[in-house]
Each structure stands twice: as structure tokens, then as C-alpha cells.
Amino acid sequence: MCSQSNLNITAGNVCQCILLLLLLTTQALPASAQATSPESAPTGYCHLLLTSAPNAPPSPATDAGKPKIAISEAQPVRISARQCEKSGDTYALRGDVAVEFGDYTFHGDTVTYNAGTGEAEATGNAVLDGGPRDVHISASNGSYNLRTHTGKFYRVVGTTGARFKGKNVTLTSSSPLAFTGKEVEQTGPDEYVLHHASVTSCELPHPKWTFNAATIILRVGNSARVYNTTFRLKGIPVFYLPYAAPPVERLGRQSGLLLPNIGTSSTKGTILGDSVYWAINRSADATLGAEFLSKRGWSLQEALRVVPSQKSFINLNYFQVLDRGIAGTDASGKPTTIDQGGEDIKLNAESEFAHGVRGVATLNYLSSFIFRLAFTENFSQAVNSEVKSDAFLSKSVNAFSLNAFTSRYQNFQSTVPDDVITILHTPGVEFSGVDQPVLGSWVYGGFDVDAEGLRRSEPNFVTSGLAGRFDLDPDLSLPLLVNGWTLRPEVQLRNTVYSQQQAPSSSQSEGTAVTNVLNRRLIDATFELRPPALIKVFDHTIANRKLKHTIEPRMTYQYVNGIEDFSRTIRFDLRDILSNTNEVEYALTQRLYLKRAKDDCAESNAAAGQPSSETPQAGACAPAGADEFLSWEVKQKYFIDPNFGGAVINGRRNVLSTTVDFAGIAFLTDPRRFSPIVSRIRMRTTANSDMEWELDYDTKKGRINASTFYSRVHFGDFFVEASHAYLQVPGEIVTSPTTGLPLPQCSQNRLNQLGCVPSAFNQIRALLGYGSPSKKGWSAAANVGIDSQFKLVQYSAAQAAYNWDCCGLSFEYRRFSLGPAVLRNENQYRFAFTLANIGTFGNLKKQARLF
Fold first, then answer.
1. Cβ-contact 794, 805 below 8 angstroms
2. What is the C-alpha separation between 512 and 552, in angstroms, rounded?
3. What pLDDT band is residue 134 in, cutting at 50, 70 and 90?
4. Average pLDDT of 411-436?
5. Fewest beta carbons within 10 Å, which of 88, 156, 556, 812?
6. CA 72 – CA 89 distance, rounded (Å)
7. Residue 12, φ and ψ in degrees, nearest 5
8. Cα–Cα distances in Å, from 748 out to 27, 120, 221, 345, 756?
9. E-state strands within 438-544
10. How far is the C-alpha of 454 from the C-alpha of 466, rounded, in Å?
């Protein structure tokens, strides 16, 4: 120690140089503060490594109770600066100062660090970086305690969830947040109190929006609690909120008020609403909301989600409108108020019980069809007249399955109350086995056994309580493959017993249900033949793709006999529309396949530095398999028995399983030999485009029965979708719910016709757009639905949006024209202002957007 002291005195007296004195003083620091790697630092820098703290004086009262983090060799304090001085436990640091401890780094132009207390105080450009949430605080000056992770900063600009490295910024959180404040006090590792401050998710220093308040409590990893705040756009106050809690990290769910909904509609008036989100516990939450419709009343919307276990969930949605009514006329033409309110309840649940038993429930309740037409916001849902509810328990073991189920099906025929068909299945039990070899032979066998209680009700027809049905359906098949030819004969011996049957009546088209056992026995024999496919691989390429063409013919003969009492069978489901038939189906399917040429893979390998003869690297070129570019199926049936065993009734639409399974539509209105020719074309050029066209042409009547076309194309930010649906529905008989007499057919090109049955549908849909929900800048889209049969625009919508870096604004106009004006002739105006990582203000919901 004496030699070191003499060296200091001699150097000080001779040189009188401050820089040299500082360097010599640094050399004389204790071993725990020696520089670790001076050779790696720039010339003139000093580096210190503190691995233990001297005996510190008692902490101030303000630090009482705060956790202390010990300095050790495993967690040292690293100091770098241009100039370093030490006096006792205090270090005076100047020039590009960096004090590192754990995950934090404290910067400043001039820093005083007390090794005993862990307090670092910066004058000029104080910066704090790091921590588990990547906090960045830039201030004019401030202090920070390395041991307690507390501090105070002045004139602050800061961020969370972003890591800075020079000019590069890396987001490390799903909800980064920026803040400013005249004074920021860090009260713990993850809590900051901001005074006279603002928070935003926009880029500073010119944010598009901010929450401004006198006091903001920022809990990193949780939320920013803002009291008595004003929301500002471009610095202009827009509205006041007593409390707001923008998230700082998406780590969990919190109860609270959601952003309000505001909108307008020509039939509902001004719409004002809000919702409360309730995080019940770790596995359940609920959203309770209400809207005030100035012209109609109140709308209630609730949602409950429960996840009791990893293999179970419950989702409940409730929608109700307490309607004051809309002006209309009654049956006699007198002015009246029509109440279109109602309820729509949906429950979806699934669970796996003990011993591998799986339970599923999808339950729907709709109070009236006029309620769905008047208030449902989605067009396809608004015009859907069906309501289905199903629930079942299922247990599968190897190739066998046992199911217990119940279901309820409703189809609303019109907006007239009680004009609905209801079919109930309860209780029901089904036991089935898939095809498998019989005693190790080439013969495959399967079976299906079903027993259930059934009920059907509709205007002028209802079963007597529950009707019982027992169905036994075993089948045997022998699949054979001989020189490329596939042969599959199959036979079914089916027996179905009903406890009730339908008795024809001259006064009612549907007859009446009587309690009398009906035993239906049938034999169903099928022989399917598939010749070898014809394949041609072309030598030439198209767009550097090889082309492969296949032709796949097939023929199926079916004979069903034993159903002599088809007219006495009550229709509940597909089991009840089986009929006698003797028919042949013949079909031809053509396919075009595209495959990249081998040269493409060789070029890709060469670019990747791999020999062309080797297997391509992953992602170097397209997969070795070919992609189906185009498929075209054409099929038709020839009916050897044109009357289907007497099941066909002339002049009305006959629904039989053999016709529905073939074409999907009921084309039988009289006996016939040939079915319509069915064509199915599917084309997929790329992953962003496809096209489908299904056509049914009736050669007997010389017309198109049905045609459905759909096409979708995405190129860059542009997207186009178009569809056309045409359907002839002759022979449909619908009885009036009031008189019980068949309704006449509707006249073409006449709007708002009541009490009639349409004979044809001809509808066009189109969607054109540019952009996406997350695209920065402008996006726009428009769609339209046209009923060509009645020259009517059923619905249309146009949406425009502009997104900045941290917020977006969307506007939408939507129109509905469903039935008479009193039913729904509505113009809606919607908007949404979205704050990044915060939420959406307005009434334009995600499911109603066009893009």
C-alpha cells in the first residue's frame, strides 16, 4: 500500500494532469472495482466491475419495506464512462455513462453512483433501458436505484414492449405502449406513476391519439390505469372518460366496460349501446350488453363462455329485441302496429366424459321468423328459415359406435305466426358398425340399428304424440380389383317398423296420422363398376408446367324393391323417403393435373448451391406431386322403372332419396325415364383463385333446372368474388296456414307478393374490394345481391377504411330489402374507430365487415 501511495503523490506533483490523475486513480481502485477488459474499450474509456457493495448506511425511510437485490459476482454492476472518479462509496462518472445491473441499463451524460445505497443520479439525457418488459425511458434528468428498482425521472418520453438498438426497434410485446410525462416515478420493478402525462400506442413524438390525464398508473405487464382522462385526436380533446385501462401486455382478462357503440339506421333510428365484460374466473367469462334503438326500443345481447376442462366448453349467446313496433296494416287493411321483437338463443357445448364418452350439444331457439328477418345483421342468416337443435352422447370402440341423441328441426314457411314445420327426434338410440371383413374373408359387412321417438307438426297435420320407429339396416359388399377394373356388388336387407302411418284424405293434401303399425321391408342391391382410368401425359409444357389428363368412367346399377306403401310413410328424415327403383347411373370424370417441369427444380437447386441431380431442398421448388387444376364430372341416370313403384304423384314435387342424392334437387313431377344431365366443374388455378359451376339440364323438358356458379380471385391487394344461383322449383305444394288450401304460384317480376309459392329463383352476388383489415392506408370494398326474378336489389353494402400506424377509421353503408317495406326496408350507417391494442369504438362489428 505504501508503494501505491508514493506513486500517486509523485505522479500528482509532477504531471498536474487531470486525465492522468484519473487514470492513476482508477488503477488504485479496490480489486472489486477493477476494469475487466480495458483492451476492448475505446481509448480513454474506463470500465468498472462491482461484485459486492460496501457496508451501506441504513436505507432512508422511503425505501423501507422495498425488496433489495444483492450485488454479487453472479449479478455484478458494470460501469463504463469516459471519466471516472471515486470518493468513498460514491463514483462520479462523466461522458456516455452506462451503469448495468441485471436486465437494466442506466445512461446519462453525468452520473453519480452510490455503491452503498445503489442510487444512480443522472444529469442530462437520463435513459433507462431493459427489464422483463423492455421499458425505455428517456428523460432530461433523473435518478434510479439499482437495488430496489425505483426511481424518479423528469420530462419523460418512454415506451414499453419495444427493444431499441441504434435506430432499429424490435417489438417484444403484443401490446406496446408509449407514454410522456412531466414527472415519472418508478415505485417498483413493474409500476410507474406518471404525472401530467399521456399514453398511446402511436409513434412519438407526433401521435395520432392519446389518453391525457393528471395521474396515470402504469403497470407494465398489466394495464395503464388512467383517471379523469380526455381522449385526444391530433391533440384535440374529443371526449372525457372518468376511467380507462388500455392494456400494456396481453397476459390475462380483466373485467370492465367496453368501448361504446354508436350508429344509425332508417328503421331503428339512432343506436346507442355499451357492454360490460366480466372475467368470472380462469375458465369462464361473460359479455353483457344493451343497445337503445330510438325508433324501436331496446336490444339485449349477452354471451357466456365456459371452459371447464381442456376437453370441454360451453358457449351461450342470447339476442333479444324489446320492440315498440312498426307501423303497418292488419288483414283487413286497417292501420296497426306490428311487433317484430323476439328472441334468438344459441348454445354450443362439448365435453368428453369418463370411459371415452363424448357429448355434443348445438341448441337453437328462435321465437319467430319475422324477428330474424327484421333484426339479424347478416343477410344469409336473416333469410335462413331453418332452426336446428341437436344433442348426442357417443361412444366408439374399434369399428363400432353407440349413440344416444335428440334433435329438433324447424322450418318457417312464412312470417305468419305458427306457420312452421317442426320435427322432433327424442329419445333416439343408434348402434352402428363400419364395413370390415367378415370372418377374415373378402366379404365386408356393416350394419346400422336405430330406434327413436318422432313427432311432426305443421299446419293441418300433426302426429299423435310420439311415433315410434325401429330401423335395422345390415349390408354386405364384395370389393374386387381385377386387372385395373374395380367391381363392388353390395346388398342391403332393410326392415323399418313405424308405430304410426299416414292415412290419405281427400280434404287435406298431407292426410292424417293414425296409430297403426307399418312394417316396411326392402332389398337394396347395388353393383358398381369402374373401368381403368385413361391417362395421357403430354410431352409439351404449358407455362413451364407438365400436363396430365385422366378420364375416369363409372357405372352403377341399383335395384330397390319392397316399398309398396310409400304414400303411407310419414316424412321425418332421409330414412323415410326411400322408394322402389330400378335404375342405372353412368358418369364420366375428367381431370387435368399440372406439375412443375424438372428443369425448374434443377434451376432452383443450382441457385441454392445444390447439384441438380440431388433431391430438391425444402422450399427450393414445388412439391414432387401434381396439383389438380381442373375436374369435370358429367353424370345421368336411366330409370328402368319410371314410376318408382307407384311413388310418383303427377303434378307435384316428389322428393325421393334416389333423386335427392343424385342431383340435390327434386326434379320429379311425373314419371320419367331419364334424369337431368348433371355437370360439375371445379377449377383451381392458384391458391388465390378458384371457380365452380354446377349445372343440371333437363333433357325431357328442354330447360335448365338448376345452375350455380361461384368464382373467387385474389391478386395482390385486390379481390373479386361473384356467384349466380338459378333454380326451377315446379310442383311445390304449400298449404295456407289459415285456409288449409294449396297456395298458387307467384307471378314473375312482381314484388311483395303474399300468399303464393315462387316457381323459380334467380339471384346474383358480387363482391369487389381492395386492401385488408391490417393494410396501412386506404382499403375499400362493395358487394351487392340482386334477385333477377323480381328485379330487386336484396342487399348491398360499401365500406371504406384508412389505417394509420396505430389506429384506423372505417365507414360502411348497408341496405336490406327483404319482402314488403313493412317487413324490412332498411338503410344502415356504420363506422368503427379502432385503436391499436386497445379496442374499437363504433358499431361496425368484425362479422359485418366486407374485408
1. no
2. 48
3. confident
4. 92
5. 88
6. 16
7. -65, -40
8. 102, 86, 64, 36, 11
9. 444-458, 461-462, 467-477, 480-482, 485-498, 501-503, 512-514, 518-530, 534-542
10. 5
